Amino acid sequence: MEFASYVEIQATRSKVLNLSRRVLTPVEVTCRNLQKTFNTKKSVELTISDLVCIAVITLLAALIVDVVYALVTRRSQKSNVGSGFLSDANEPPNLGIVVARFMTQLTWPTSVFEAIRHSEMYGLPGCMYVSSNGVLVYTIFTLILLEFRTKAPGAQTLAQFVRVRFGTVCHILTVIFTIFTSTFELIVDVSVGSTTLNAVCRTAGKTAIISFVFILVGAFLLMTWRKSYGVFLYLMMSALVVITSILLLLVLNASSYYPLVRIVRVVLDQSLWELAISLPPNHSIIGLLLATLLAFSIPAALSIACGLGFLALESAFFNEVLLTSTQKLSGLTIFAVPIHLLERQGAYLVFFVVLILLVTSSIYNISGAATIFYHDILETYIRPFKKHASEHTCLLCGKPRGHLASRRNICRCRSMLECSNCQMDTWIREQCKSRPSSTLLYGCRTHGAYRAYKDEMSYSVLRITFTVMAGMIPIFIMLYKVELVNFIYFGICTPFIGCLCLTMIWARLTNHAFLIGYTVSTLISLALWLLLDNFTSLEMMKIQLIALTVAFAGGFIVPIVITLATTKTPSQEVTLAVWRSVQQIDNPLIPWPELFTRQTDLRFSPRLSETKPAPSEVRRALSGLRRLAYVIVIFNFAIFLGVWHVFMYVSKSFEFDEFFYFVRSVELWTYLAAGLCILTPIIRLISSQMANFKQLLRSTPRIVRQWLLRMRRRAGPNQ
Question: Which UniProt keywords apply (predicted)?
């Protein structure tokens, strides 16, 4: 009998023998190993008790972190030794904590689901496009943020910048869009996330899952007022990157995607602006760029482990369909590989990852909307400190300020940080923490009234936050699974991105060009969307791409054309006056020039009566930061656009060795991101403690001399 080069003889049902003398290729060896490892299908379904246990463990972890942090900080305050995790007025914040907080904001649950879905549908190109596009979008946002911090360092929100330049109408429009963005993101995240969790926990029901999610959101919103919140986010992000690394390690060892959708949600995301503005310029820009590089690893690694891993899992069962299209749409793909590897523990790990991503994303959306309500609605229109305040008079004393004021009647107020009475008031409140804050009055005549006003307003922030959350829940219920919301949101918000960018970089832009350009671009994009949908046979994704591209480009082109046609080239004095007006946005208690003086080499006098530093001086003080940011931006575009996108487009299929090195590079990136995310705050803590120890060693001789002198004085009368 003559045999072919490959013969299979099946002796029993469970054994397959290879009697060929031909050496198997690495691909065939890998397939044989998969078929031997995964020879039985596995399925796990969680119960409502599992959901309760995960939620309770998460709450207990948050409580333990808060208690331990309170004990450590209380001890450090008594011993006068600063902790590396702390940040006060004299110590910069921990860069590791800053990067971890940015990573929690950059890692959306929808981005993870999209990465896994695209890798399962398109293979290697889809696996990388979602993650690399996210890096490019956040890199562009960093450039916008850098320009914003240079032009208006004292602004708390993007809407304040627009209000100073173009008035009330444009300000209200910006407020509406930012609140709409927070609401839309919450609807999308809760819809997709709860559907995925319900797919593996069907006995609990979607209503119970959403209820547990909002219970955790409410608990963590209360924790945002605690100083331990940053440390808790650091621990949660460390757990996420560790779980991602474990899944990738276990898996490896056993069409196109359009970024226009993401850039609209990123630029109008107030929570991201809020965190970046609250930090020093160096920490906000560099921290965001570093977090962008590290956050790339989470969706990329999960897309390989759960997306490409699912394709490998199907090949192990001889390309048998493991999940139906309905199950894939519900999000079960992310659970398939971990369940086959770790069984019930794998379901727990993925459930925890999705739950944490969903909760943190909801927290940021709600807090971002609450910030807009606080700064741009409550303080601006409903309960301002002074209803008829002028830009040329001091908000504290009411006297004129600047070079146009007379010497006899001029504001002489100083910063709160330079005021001895304010320091005494702060010390009294620190010593009387047990007493109700309403019984403690400020003694400073200059800043006391405004500090009391800010305290009263800050008490309402928590109520505003929970009111916003309560208001978003019925909106979510009413608009759930409504495709019209997606059409309206991207149709009316995409052209606004171009108008906002021109507002920050072009002094010639006028109010009429802003409004007319936005309106025309919106109408054109919506009309084009409807025409293509009703009179062509194009797919919805292509229709959305064409309409969003026209809307995004129109937001830049139409206002520029209207401005060039209706205005003349402004003089240098007019341009300087435009940017100086934006610089007047400030906190009267602690002016931004004083903060920048502590954080950079900006030259500034602490008197509020004097004018703000020139824009050229601010740009000079941030020149080093700008150069470093540009280097990282060029690196991001070179790697994620020039390497990932172009390389994936050219090499649509890999050989076995090429695929091996590609997967190992992503694996190495993930491990490096996990190590940096975990070790950076610890290294900062150790360096802080070492600095304190060196300072103690330097002061030891002086302490010994004082002790010896004191002992001699005590021994003198006895002798």
Answer: Membrane, Transmembrane, Transmembrane helix, Transport
